[in-house]
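Per your request, structure below.
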């Protein structure tokens, strides 16, 4: 009781509610509170006696902090050294107080910059995506138009090809090279390396390459070599393209059919013995991540049994231009074809390892 009477006789001075609003003054009753202040000086908590919003200030900078009265919560941004710049503060009771207009301006500018960057990134991504789709549509339109035009002379010359060049079919492959070049050249730049390593046209060989994209067939046809591809039987049902593959003598294969695989290898060896070349993708399918997968030994068994050289080829960039699973899109870019020196041997395992190492060296 005596303590309360003594406190009632103490007179406390009037303190302005905020340095930002000097015209507004609030009279209140103060009690010392060490826990509410900072460790650098005394600080006071305010007991609210009126309905006006009240704030609490730290003694070292007079900036408002968070205060809670009557279960109500008012938030005031704390002081930060980020905004301590020369000429950007005013003096209040000997302390530097930050201007609110400077704080608001910096926050707004940073928010606008962040929003602008995000919008530009999304716009650029959408633009690239749309351009890839447009390029893909143009790519297939050109390849379809060129195939229709070039299929006519291929069909007309086919009887003469069977009579004079039944196994290599050089004239047909010249048409196929023209078709591939007309399709790829408007969109993709092709760079060649090691063309001197290609064997002569009349020399049979087994060609092997990594497989990343549907675009690999077009790239390989631009080499102008008469090698027989191995393709799924379902592809032969496509109009024009499938018919042209039949005229070229492409070897059909039923996947997951061991008998069809055995017949395919026998047909490859028969063609090689008659002077033709064959082409294999030893991985068996397109790589999903662009990395070189394990090789199957079918192609190397054929080369070991027939004694013909293996010609390893590295294809670089086709997976980025037309990724597997997104054949409807054509991204901008360039591709590179590296022809490695031929290797000869009678051990399929050794041939497989050497060929894979050469192709991997080109990719790296």
């Amino acid at each position: 009781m005596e303590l309360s009477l003594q406190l009632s006789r103490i007179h406390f001075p009037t303190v302005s509610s905020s340095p930002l609003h000097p015209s507004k003054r609030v009279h209140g009753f103060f009690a010392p509170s060490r826990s509410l202040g900072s460790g650098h000086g005394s600080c006071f908590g305010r007991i609210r006696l009126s309905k006006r919003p009240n704030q609490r200030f730290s003694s070292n900078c007079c900036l408002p902090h968070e205060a809670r009265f009557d279960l109500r919560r008012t938030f005031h941004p704390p002081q930060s050294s980020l905004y301590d710049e020369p000429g950007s503060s005013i003096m209040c009771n000997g302390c530097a107080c930050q201007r609110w207009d400077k704080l608001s301006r910096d926050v707004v500018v940073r928010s606008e910059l962040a929003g602008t960057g995000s919008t530009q990134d999304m716009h650029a991504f959408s633009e690239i995506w749309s351009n890839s789709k447009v390029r893909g549509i143009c790519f297939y339109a050109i390849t379809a138009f060129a195939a229709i035009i070039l299929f006519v002379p291929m069909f007309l010359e086919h009887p003469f090809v069977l009579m004079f060049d039944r196994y290599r079919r050089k004239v047909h492959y010249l048409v196929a090279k023209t078709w591939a070049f007309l399709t790829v050249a408007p969109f993709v730049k092709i760079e060649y390396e090691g063309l001197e390593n290609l064997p002569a046209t009349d020399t049979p060989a087994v060609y092997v390459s990594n497989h990343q994209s549907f675009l690999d067939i077009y790239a390989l046809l631009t080499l102008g070599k008469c090698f027989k591809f191995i393709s799924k039987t379902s592809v032969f049902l496509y109009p024009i393209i499938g018919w042209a593959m039949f005229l070229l003598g492409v070897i059909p294969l039923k996947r997951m059919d061991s008998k069809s695989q055995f017949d395919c290898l026998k047909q490859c060896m028969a063609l090689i013995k008659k002077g033709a070349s064959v082409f294999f993708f030893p991985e068996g399918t397109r790589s999903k991540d662009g990395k070189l997968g394990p090789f199957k030994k079918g192609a190397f068994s054929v080369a070991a049994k027939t004694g013909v050289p293996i010609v390893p080829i590295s294809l670089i960039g086709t997976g980025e231009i037309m990724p597997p699973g997104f054949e409807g899109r054509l991204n901008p870019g360039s591709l590179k074809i590296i022809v490695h020196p031929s290797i000869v041997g009678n051990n399929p395992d050794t041939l497989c390892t050497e060929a894979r190492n050469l192709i991997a060296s080109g990719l790296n």
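The chain has nine helices and 18 strands.

Regards,
D.
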